[in-house]
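Figure S7 source data.
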Amino acid sequence: MFEDMVTARYYEERLQEEYLEGKQPAFDISAGPIPGELHLAAGHEAAAAGVCRHLRDDDTVTAPHRPHHVAIAKGVDLKRMTAEIFGRQTGLSGGKGGHMHLFDPDVNFACSGIIAEGCPPAVGAGLAAKKRNEDSVAVAVLGEGAISQGAFLESLNLAAVQELPVVFVIEDNDWAISMPKDRITDVEDGSRRADGFGMPGVRVDYDDATAVYDAAKDAIGRARADNGPTLMEVQVHRRMGHFMGDPQSYRPDADTEAAQERDSIERLADDLRAAGVSDDDIEAIRERAHDRVDEAIEWAKDQPEPEPADAHEDVFVNPPSGVTTDEPNHELAESEGDD
Ligand SMILES: Cc1ncc(C[n+]2csc(CCOP(=O)(O)OP(=O)(O)O)c2C)c(N)n1
Ligand SMILES: [Mg+2]
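Tokens for the predicted magnesium ion complex:
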């Protein structure tokens, strides 16, 4: 868990540097080696590490728009994920998805920029496992800002009524962009949403990785033993803005400072020391993580950009009549407008 967490934190520190290249002095979101939005998950690491430690490659995880820590904990190929974020040909999706749309079928990982939209596919994966009599499970990760979305609530219902092996994990960082939690819902403890669907709900009040691990052990164990779904909520903290470039003018200084003070990584390091792990061993884990991240970033930056014509690939699985994936059909494109 510690290695996953320090890998995720350092990975995002490195991405920040790369992201800002060329975007200054006036913030130009389309400039630089990582064009577009970038949502960093510093402060969320314990939730992913504590849950994913119980998962196998054949278990499914769907993550939201803030996906890196979850992808790393699920074992997504770091080099191909990084190439995807840099928009390169050898990225997980040929460089077309970017950081919010990472797909790795080798470890059954997907994420989406549309909040709560990972829930229905996770329920689908749970249903498939059940119908095939397999003991794989599915986990859907979402933010507290998404807990009133229809996709989430309908998914809870279907998972409960069909007793599917699905665990829903809410990462409660108190904010949905600039909206504080108490302006989004009157339910302080999001795990209580479970009551309305007749499934167990559990809240981990502090992003203590070992507490998350213990709660997830029960939830995932229950799902794997065919005893139905669980809703978990984990209190995490948002150390950064909603996305890179967010001035956070809406956020009280005290809240930002509190988030900086609570660091689940340092907390776990203390726990490891208390359990007899030496400083040298802790440092060796950090070094290994940093080397892996540096290598992935250097590799990704060396990868080729996609060819412009590649934009026509992977658009349709079964191209409709008149559309070919070999040669761009300019006539069709012109007659049908920009779509
Ligand atoms: C269906 C939908 N509505 C609105 C948005 C715009 N949006 C992107 S992130 C976000 C807030 C998400 O907050 P939360 O779920 O708490 O996740 P966090 O960013 O805090 O990790 C919104 C409203 C979206 N992506 N999808
Ligand atoms: Mg949030």
